[in-house]
Every structure is written in C-alpha cells, then in structure tokens.
Amino acid sequence: FKQKTAYEIRPRDWSSDVGSSDLAVVVADGSGDGAGGAGADAQLAQLGDMGDRPAAGADGVAAHDREVDPPAVHDGVEALGEGPADDDEASGYHLHASLVNKAGRNLFDAPRAKDGLSETAHQFIAGVVEHGPALCGLLNPTVNAYKRIINGGLSPKFANWGHDNRFAMLRISEERGPAARAEIRSGDGSANPYLVASALLAAGLDGIERKLKPPAPVVGNFYEGPEEAFGAPLPTSLGEALDALEGDTRLVDLVGPELVATFLRNKRYELARWEAHQNRLTAWEIEEYAEAL
User: For the purposes of burial, counting CB atoms within 10 Å of the CB of 42, is it exposed (0-12), middle (13-18) or buried (19 or more)?
Assistant: First the structure.
C-alpha cells in the first residue's frame, strides 16, 4: 500500500519550518520512505508515506496526525483541516493501493496486457468504482469535506477511473512492474486512515470475488465530453453520503455492520447539530440586512 496525503500548512514554502518537521515525522515513523512536494495551492504541501501493509500504513498516517497537529495548531493552523478557508484548495487523502502475493509479485502488473494491467487489477478497479458513492460516507466524513468536492478543483465528482487521469476518482499510475498501483483520489483530509484502508480493500476485493468488469476509462478532461461517460455522481453532502453508505448493504456487510451502524449513528448526530446551526442568525445576515431593517 502507498499513501499520499496533502496537508494544509501555512502560506510559505512547503520545505520550511513545519513543512520540514512534517516530513521528518513521516520518515521517522518507520513506515517507509517519505516524500514531499508542493500541492495544488500555495497553502498545500504533499507528503508521501511510501509503501506499507494496510494497518501499518494507517498507523503511520495516524501517528503523523498526532505528532504534527500540535505544533501546527499552536501556530494558528490546523494541519489536517480539509477546507481551511474560502476560495482555497483543501486537503485530500489519496491512497495508493496494489496487491502483492506471498512471493512479493505485484498482482496488478501484466506486461503482456494491452494496458499493462492484469485481470485482477481490472476487477479491483470495478469494485471500487461500483462502491464509489457509498465509500464517500467513510472517505469524506464531515460537513466541511463537501466544500472541497463541490467547489471545483481536482476533487472527484463521479465514480470512474482513468489512466494517469487526475480528474478521475481512481487513477491508474503510469508505472508498471512492482510500482503498478491504483490511486483512489476521493478521500478527504479528515478521514480515518483505518476506515479508508479497510473500506477500499473491501470494495476492491469484492470486485475480484465477483469478477466484475470496470466501465471504460475516462480520458482527459472528460467533463468536456458526453455526460453518460462521466460515471455515477458522487454525493455532494454528508447526508447524501451517509444514505449511500447505508444503502450499499454489500459494502456494509464487508466492512462490518456493527461498525458501520455506529459510524452512521454518530455522523447523523453530527449532521443534526450542523442542521440546527443552520437556523442560527449569521454575521452575513446582520451585515446584509441590518441597515434596511
């Protein structure tokens, strides 16, 4: 497994101060070779946790969150905030996944295949795409997460896949051989890394078990093409995502009915509190209407 998450830090070069200490923590966690780089916005940096088993990889992300958040918050910034400010890019959680057998061979790689991908890889892709809408409930678990999705940028909006296509929900990297992998790009910076790894594995393995075939890959900026090629729309709110998760009974059974039921109960309580907050008088309303009244 490979994880890559973009963390919001501060509007300065990613390699200075907290950026450098963030990267050091990833490397020091013992969870693989770290990687860093600039994100899609001046306030974003990408930090990579390069390759591990699912649980250990999730441990690395959780440890990074625990170790990096305190100094970042001390400086007035939330390191893992998914939608930090209006009109800014937000933090996503992209998980890079491949399957390896006991002999260490990457099961996604097929050198003789037209696209270099095995049947197993295509089945994995099909499972993740089929469960894409339901996965949003676990991969985008906050009200704020959907501001990242609906406000443009490269955040996926449809359940689809493509070859090295960063508009797609699932991107197949250019690399083949041991580095052949799928990047699932629909996760949010607020997501629980253990639930992300578990749910995506369950979805992909379901595709393998049922021998599913994926739809045709999207090419380029598919938003400029016919809508029927986009794929199923992904939820645009936490309420929609929770309903999609609950309605995907196969994924619920694979992830664990009791776990999902508890998750849904907690998140719907959170959503109810947000909806109650919506009824409060806002600063915008006072500024907009006070003089007229």
Answer: middle
| Tokens standing for residue 288 | 């907009």
Q: How far is CA 249 from CA 151, 170, 193, 245, 284, in A?
A: 30, 22, 22, 8, 41
The pLDDT, as a whole number, for residue 269 is: 96
Q: For position 172, what pLDDT does the model report?
A: 95
For the chain, report the end-to-end CA distance as a whole number of angstroms.
59
In this structure, what token pair is assigned to residue 6?
């973009």
**pLDDT reported for residue 57:** 55
Q: Do residues 8 and 79 lie in contact, with contact meaning Cβ atoms separated by under 8 Å?
A: yes
> Which residue type, as a one-letter code, is found at position 138?
L
- On whether the CB atoms of residues 148 and 82 are closer than 8 A, the answer is yes
The pLDDT tens digits of the residues spanning 61-103 come to 555 554 444 444 333 333 344 454 555 556 678 889 999 999 9
All residue ranges of the chain with pLDDT < 50 are: 1-50, 66-82, 84
Place of tokens 């629980």: 192
* pLDDT, tens digit (0-9, with 9 covering 90-100), for 117-127: 999 999 999 99
Find how far residue 21's CA is from the centre of its chain: 23
Between the CA of residue 143 and those of 111, 206, 215, 269, what are the distances in Å? 43, 28, 30, 12
Distance CA 255, CA 136 (A): 14
User: How far is 276 from 280, CA to CA, in rounded Å?
Assistant: 7
pLDDT of residue 90: 60
Q: Backbone phi, then psi, for 86, in 5-degree steps?
A: -60, 140
Q: How many CA atoms lie within 13 A of 84 on its CB side?
A: 24
8 Å CB contact between 277 and 151: no
SS3 content of the chain, % helix, strand, coil (to 5): 45, 15, 40
Q: How far apart are CA 168 and CA 184, in angstroms?
A: 9
Which H or E element spans position 253? Answer: helix 249-255
How many angstroms separate the CA atoms of 76 and 9, rounded?
A: 10
